[in-house]
Write a structure and sequence with these properties.
The complex is a heterodimer. Chain A has helices at 45-52, 75-81, 98-105, 115-125, 127-131, 142-154, 172-187, 199-205, 223-228, 230-237; strands at 7-16, 19-29, 34-39, 60-65, 68-69, 83-86, 160-164, 191-196, 208-213, 216-222. Chain A is α/β, with parallel strands linked by helices. Chain A starts with 6 loop residues before the first strand and ends with a helix. Chain B has a two-stranded antiparallel sheet. In chain B, α9 crosses α10 (240-261) and α9 (220-235) runs parallel beside α11. Chain B is globular. The chains are: A alpha/beta, B mainly alpha.
Amino acid sequence: MPEQALLKVSNIDAFHGSFQALWDVSLSVKPGEIVAIIGANGSGKSTLLDTISGFVHPAKGSIEFEGNDISKVEPFNIVKLGISQTPEGRRIFPDLTVLENLIIGAYNRKARPERAQNLQRVYQLFPILEDRKAQLAKTLSGGEQQMLALGRGLMSNPKIMLLDEMSLGLAPMMVNELYKALREIRARGITILFVEQNVRRSLTEADRAYIMEAGRVVLSGNAAELREEEKVKKAYFGA
Amino acid sequence: MILLSDLATPIVMGILLGGLYAVIALGLSLVFGVVKEINIAHGDLVILGSYFGYVAMTRFGIDPILSLVIGIPILFGIGFVIQKYLLNRAFRISTDATLIIAFGISIILESTYQFIWTPMSRGLTTPYALDSLSAGPIHVPLVYLLDFIAALVVMLFLREFLKRTYLGRAIMAAAQDRKAAHLMGINTDQVYAFTLGISAAFAAIAGVFLGLTFPFTPVSGMAFLIIALGVIVLGGLGSIVGTFVGAIVFGVVQTVSGHFFGVAAQMLAAYTMVLVVLAVIPRGIFGSR
């Protein structure tokens, strides 16, 4: 018996105005997995995350989370269900303090009762955030801001985290640290679906991956196998 | 020395008058900072507050300040409904649409006041409205001091509310990044409605203190809206402390220039000062962005 999917995207089309950004995209994530979505700029990766988060409603197809259809749920109600997105560019609240950013992460009513406990967990994962809790978020370095964005996502008590371009523009050492944190987050039982442009890195960190091109999923499978796939090697590793 | 003691009264009057301007401008500034809309009808909501105090006083014999216990929730409700059912919908079309809708609301409100209360000038002439306070060479009307106290109360309330409550934090978050706010589970349309509600509740307070300080007519709202706009661009858009300081600077320039050049010149001097300040520091005194 295959384990039931936590998140199941089936044959969705999605539009930005009249521009079709997703074509018949399907994807599923099982509880506890780390899954990567790989593709170049404009391949539809971020739109896919935004469709799951409810910012874009699919014109066709369905999105199920824990067996319930969520394709018409508004974005501010999605997080309550246990889906948290850390958006591209981090989008922390620059003029709030680090602590205020974390507290606002626990805004949804289901997360509020567990705020103190989740805050301790975030501080364990990223001690630097506790040191800087009284600082305005905009004074943090890029890597620290990314940690804050992840911490803020964790405060919502998610079952799955959607991470958009987490390592973009960061130094390799910082990227290593963030991926280490990601593995710890997974070890706490939180499922992860992340979007990356760095193919090599993604295929090392993920269990499975989906490769997107021009709004379509063109290849998917076990990350280790994809690394050996000729097409992937050719297209992304230049070998 | 004579000049200084001469000036003491206008300066103190200006600071206290700045308090009244601050209460009027804080609501406008909050909505501008959070919802990014200029609520052209804000002055008219303030005047609605004045008329509410007037009715409470003349019909029911209730002190206008005391009547705020009812006036605040009523104005809050009106503000909430205006944002939820009119401005949020207009916002989906464009930001210009919200401006036009707000202008329409302004005209409707002014016409309503004309209809109900006639164009006659009214005032909240309470027993204490004519009392004054003296300290050494300084003489100021009691209501000016009340204006300033009201400003301090409103400002402190707003600051603590934004910092300490979930709704306050949601308002700050929605002001800084709408999409990220959605990702936190914040219904920004709801938050905007609350924001205009709070702004209108401040208008209720501002209206009562305005009515205690000056006579008002159905069309007074526009004059005070323009003063409030001057105040918030002076202080720096969207900053609470900036709005407060801007209001006081505006008030002082007005009363001091009135002292030297006569009452007819005081508004000219105040607006000229706003232009000069903007020419030198375009972001306003406390503007950050």
